[in-house]
Amino acid sequence: MEWMLIWFEAHPGTASWAQAIGSILALVVAIGLSYWQLRNAKRTLHRQRNQDTKQLVDAFSAIADYAAKQFSDVIYQVKQPSFLRFLCVGLDAEELRRVVTTIDAFPVFQLPNYKAIETALEIKVLIHGIVRDWCELQELVTHSGAEATQVHLTGRVTLLEEASATLSLQIQEFKTAATLVGDA
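Now predict its structure.
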C-alpha cells in the first residue's frame, strides 16, 4: 500500500487521469442505468397493454356469449309446444334490450386489430337484428290470433335460427382473431 502512495506522488498527472476515468465511468453507469429503466418501463407498459387487451377481448366475448346463450334459449323455447305462452311472458324484451345497450356501450374500437373490430361490429349488427326480430315476433303473438301467429312464426323462427347460428360462428371468428393478437 505504501508503494502505491509513493508511485502516485512520483507521477503528478495521475490524479487527473483517475478523475477523468472516474468521470467517464460515472457517465457510462448513468447512461446504462437510464437505458435499463427505460427498457423496463417499456416492457411493463407492453405487459399492461397486453393485459388490458386480453381483458377487453374477454369482456366482449363474455357479452357476446351471453347474448348467444339467450338467443339459443329463445329458439329452444319457441320450438316447444307451449311456445305461444312463452312468447308472451317467457323472455322479457327488456333483458334483450339490456344486452343491446351493453354491446352498444362497449368500446369496440379499442380492440386489438382490424379483424377483431370488424368481427365485433358484425356481432353487434347480428345482435341488433336478432333482438329486433324477437321483439317483432313477440308483438305479433301479442296482437294476432293463433292462426296468424302460426303462419308468420315458421319463417321468423327460421330467420332467428339462422341469425343465431351466424352469431355463434362470428363469436368463434372473433375469439380466433383476438387470440392471434394475444399470442404475438
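The chain has a mean pLDDT of 81.
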